[in-house]
Each structure stands twice: as structure tokens, then as C-alpha cells.
Task: inverse folding
């Protein structure tokens, strides 16, 4: 089955890297002719569609990866057919804005870690063809409702905030004298370790934290400073602001 990519920008490039890494045949991938499409087709051997109509006619599954405001117009009046699946990764664009009938639409929220096969990708509704595609990029996580999907999409922003925290912590360590490459590697792997410990150990998160916060110790000291500066409250406020944006934003604004 041909996979069509409608919108070949930053995220599509990460996903294409991950799909190639997973062993997908580049000849089975067809790109819409804008953005980075020509360059990627020449480099990797992907097909290049004449236009979006040609893409939809030839593909069995279509990944929609245009900017949110462009999504409703990009899918309008294309020759969608029964049995086709459209996977939209456009943040904040509800299924009701995607006129792809009689094709079925799925929303998904991959991270750029797709390129290394490490994206936990939420999706709704559960359609097996979409799930199989997303599983090539890391663990796909099917959700029960579109409301759940919006809440889960906040995690895509948290991913960026985590990268910013890693950058800040690594720069602090380098500024304090650590070799910059060592600081970068150590900080990044420390975040990986924290995430994996919670993902792979079923114990309550409070208990896991309690086990590592020695009274009077260094972790406790730092948490006190962060709490005194209002960091936990600011974090909650940032999450709520993103959810508000996702549920309120009308594409085009
Ligand atoms: N970046 C991320 O990490 C990330 C993560 C999760 C989800 N997303 C979602 O992914 C989507 C794309 O984000 P991005 O960062 O990859 O944006 P981007 O780099 O701006 O890529 C969007 C691409 O879509 C093309 N495009 C727009 N309208 C088109 C049309 N009608 N037909 C064909 N191509 C069209 C644009 O081409 P032109 O340059 O010619 O306009 C551009 O190349 C967004 O909806 C975003 O919410 C992104």
C-alpha cells in the first residue's frame, strides 16, 4: 500500500527518517510537491506526486502534516475514497474540520523523536492501519476520546520544555566547568533515566520519588528552591495554557 505524505516540512521529515529506519521501502512513499519534497525524493527515492489530487488517488494511507491553519483547506475537495485512512498530525485541528469522507481520519501526535524510533505517539480513534504505521516510530498509544487526545497533546509541548530544561542544565554544568559534550550527554541521559525508571517501574510515583529524596540531601534542597520560586505552579499554568489553546484555537487564527 502506498503511503502519501501531504505536507513535507519539519515533522514529516522526522517521520520519514523514522519510517526509513524502520525498514519501509522508499518506493512505497509518495510526497506532495511542496516544502522539502523534491529534495527528499531526490535523496531517498520517494515518489513525487504531480499535485495533491494525484497523491490522494495513488495512496492507500495519507499522512497530513501541514500547519494547523492550512489543514481544512488542504484536504478539501480531494478525491478521497472508501477504505482510505488519513492520519492527521495537525495540532488542535478536530476531526470535524477534516472533510475527508468517505475516507476515515485519525488524529496522531508524533514527536520529532520519530526519527530515532522513540516517539510515544498518541492517536484517536483506533484504526489498525494508522496504528501499524505509527508503531514504526515508537510506541503508539490509542486513546478513548478526542477530548483525551487534546489533553494528551499537551505532552507534545512538554517534550519541548524537557529539551529546554536539558539544554539549560547542560549549559549550567558547562558554565560550572564540565566539558560541554560530557555535560550534554550526562544531562540528556539523566532525563532518559528518570523517564525510563517511571515508565518501567510500576511503583507509585510518590514512592519512587520518596526513595530518592534523602531528608536534608541534595535533591530535597533543589526541590525546596524550585518550590520557593513557584516552579510547580508555573508548570501547571503552562500545561493549562496549552490545553486552552488546543481546545479554543480555530484553524486560521
Ligand atoms: N514540528 C513538530 O515537532 C510537530 C510535532 C507534532 C505535530 N506537529 C504538527 O505537524 C504539522 C506540521 O508542522 P511542521 O513543523 O512540520 O510545519 P512546516 O515545517 O511548516 O511544514 C508544513 C509543510 O506543509 C506544506 N504545505 C502547506 N499547505 C500545503 C498544501 N496544501 N499542500 C501541500 N503542502 C502544503 C508547507 O509547504 P510550504 O513551505 O510551501 O508552505 C510546508 O512544507 C503541524 O500541523 C503541527 O501541528 C508538528
Result:
Amino acid at each position: 500500500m502506498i503511503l502519501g505524505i501531504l505536507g513535507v516540512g519539519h515533522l514529516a521529515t522526522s517521520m520519514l527518517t523514522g519510517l526509513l529506519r524502520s525498514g519501509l521501502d522508499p518506493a512505497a512513499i509518495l510526497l506532495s510537491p511542496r516544502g522539502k519534497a523534491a529534495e527528499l525524493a531526490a535523496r531517498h527515492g520517494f515518489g513525487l506526486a504531480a499535485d495533491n489530487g494525484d497523491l490522494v488517488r495513488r495512496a492507500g494511507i495519507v499522512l497530513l502534516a501541514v500547519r494547523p491553519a492550512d489543514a481544512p483547506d488542504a484536504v478539501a475537495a480531494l478525491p478521497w475514497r472508501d477504505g482510505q485512512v488519513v492520519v492527521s498530525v495537525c495540532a488542535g485541528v478536530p476531526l470535524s474540520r477534516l472533510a475527508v469522507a468517505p475516507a476515515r481520519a485519525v488524529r496522531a501526535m508524533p514527536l520529532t523523536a520519530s526519527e530515532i524510533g522513540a516517539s510515544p505517539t498518541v492517536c484517536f480513534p483506533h484504526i489498525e492501519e494508522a496504528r501499524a504505521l505509527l508503531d514504526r516510530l515508537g510506541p503508539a498509544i490509542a486513546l478513548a476520546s478526542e477530548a483525551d487526545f487534546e489533553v494528551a497533546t499537551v505532552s507534545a509541548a512538554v517534550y519541548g520544555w524537557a529539551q529546554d530544561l536539558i539544554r539549560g542544565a547542560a549549559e549550567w554544568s558547562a558554565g560550572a566547568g564540565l566539558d560541554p559534550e560530557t555535560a550534554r550527554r550526562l544531562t540528556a541521559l539523566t532525563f532518559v533515566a528518570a523517564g525510563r525508571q517511571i515508565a518501567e517501574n510500576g511503583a507509585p510515583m510518590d514512592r519512587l520519588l520518596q526513595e530518592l529524596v534523602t531528608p536534608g540531601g541534595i535533591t530535597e534542597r533543589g526541590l525546596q528552591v524550585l518550590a520557593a520560586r513557584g516552579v510547580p505552579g508555573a508548570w501547571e499554568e503552562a500545561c493549562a495554557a496549552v490545553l486552552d489553546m488546543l481546545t479554543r484555537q480555530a484553524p486560521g487564527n
Residues 40 and 121 are 23 Å apart (CA to CA).
